[in-house]
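Thought: the user wants the 3D structure for the chain below. I'll pass the sequence to the structure tool as-is, report back what it returns, then summarize two notable features.
Action: structure_tool
Action Input:
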Amino acid sequence: MTAYNDFKIISSSNNFSGASVIPPDVATCSNCLEEIADPNNRRYKYPFTACTDCGPRFTVINSIPYDRERTSMEDFPLCSECEVEYEDPEDRRYHAEASCCEVCGPDVFLYKDGMLKIENPIKRAAELIDEGKILAIKGIGGTHLVVKTTENGPVDSLRQKLRRFNQPFAIMSPNIETVKGFAEVSDVESDTIQSRRRPIVVLNKNSDYSLAPSVSPYLHNLGVMLPYSGLHHLLFSYSTEPAYIMTSANMPGEPMLINNEEIISKLDGIADYFLLHNRRIINRCDDSVVRFRDGELAFIRRSRGYVPEPYDFSGINQKLKVLALGPEIDVTFSILKKENVTYPSI
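Observation:
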């Protein structure tokens, strides 16, 4: 075993040409959630709280190697307090590229015919959803259309505007205990839905199911996820709803909406209000969708939380290089290189 006497993180070379794995986005960790909930913490109720253990990665990266100046966080220079954390090897935010606070980080705002001057836009957004309004909410890798799930009216209104008359909508619920109130959840499903990857998990409805029938019509199951960003957790902290519909806001055949101006223009007439922020999304990344068959996880869509983490093909082939395209109408592709298979989010 080689012995080392020192360890340093130094500035990356501008001539970097080696292999680098871009990490996937992962859910806000428990330590950051404690800070968000602590009135005495300087990150109290700050929706973009993150550290080295959590937060956006793939969706904010411009180029590799993964340094702050190569991400959309370069738009937000660290304040003096965040700089101290960033430079401290014993701090969990040591070289945490997504780290920030309300002094130096992104802002969230509510929009309707202009930016609304509201002290707490997230609280007001939750109130509007609970009142039955349709909101477009910009997230980590794209935009969701959001409505309450306890009444058919708002759900049917969203279906009419999107012309998605029977397609089941994915929902987000605040915690696993609430999910168990309307769905059957096995141990492996519980572990997966609560994991740091936070995929949508297809669950069977239970006998106590009481959400609006129009959420997932004519089906015995529905896709459920838990909050994976500080903004989501804050929304539910102000809400009385057991779940929100959170469906991708892109139109059929079009890419996900990530630019504020485009979100507002293309969703005009669909969303009643817009909850937006000023952090640029570099790489689109939809929610992952999984289900379990005989206790084994199967991907319906492999994306946020997993992409662009590669598959290890070293046990299959170590020399072959392959570009795989398709299939059919799905615009996906995979690249096999140096024993790893990678592919973009879908």
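Final Answer: Structure generated. Helices lie at 30-37, 80-87, 121-130, 152-162, 176-179, 187-193, 230-237, 260-266. Residues 152-162 form the longest helix (11 residues).
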